Amino acid sequence: DAGITQSPRHKVTETGTPVTLRCHQTENHRYMYWYRQDPGHGLRLIHYSYGVKDTDKGEVSDGYSVSRSKTEDFLLTLESATSSQTSVYFCAISEGLAGVRNEQFFGPGTRLTVL
Amino acid sequence: DQQVKQNSPSLSVQEGRISILNCDYTNSMFDYFLWYKKYPAEGPTFLISISSIKDKNEDGRFTVFLNKSAKHLSLHIVPSQPGDSAVYFCAAISSGAGSYQLTFGKGTKLSVIP
Known about the structure:
Strand content of chain A: over 45%
Shape of chain B: globular
Oligomer: heterodimer
């Protein structure tokens, strides 16, 4: 299994509070991603990073920010949590090398509930 | 606008028979396709992939077929086993965009009945 951990694994918070989720990898992969999974929507990309301090928006980035100060860590912040952000959040990594297999490897997920 | 579509939310198959999961896509820039398997309370795990320059890729019991002209791919599992019961996601990449973003379908829940 790829070395990807997510913390916390479960969190319950209240509307309006900031929340930070952490993804940590030991594979030294260049690319890191944050997805959310919701019933009827599959997995949707929130933000991704293609290197330290290099990030970009995904399909559903509103209300989220990210930071990557080290290769191994990618943080997802909900600036002011809302009930619509109740979801399961997955981090993923990939090598991102042209011409080779580009599968992403996923972490175990964080279940976030916003009351 | 859903670029990757899995039109069957669920599929039930008897153990030992073939499972066929289908996926359609609309973006002609997609050049790499992947299937992921997901058990409850776990992250998705990579299963098998195929490049757009091929029309078939096989790995043990799993085979993926790609029909570029129809923008259609399918995952065949034979023989199906109860442990194959999971949600299967089809995903696609447009590597030319340089971001290696995966676009996922909504998933198909496969139930293999003993």
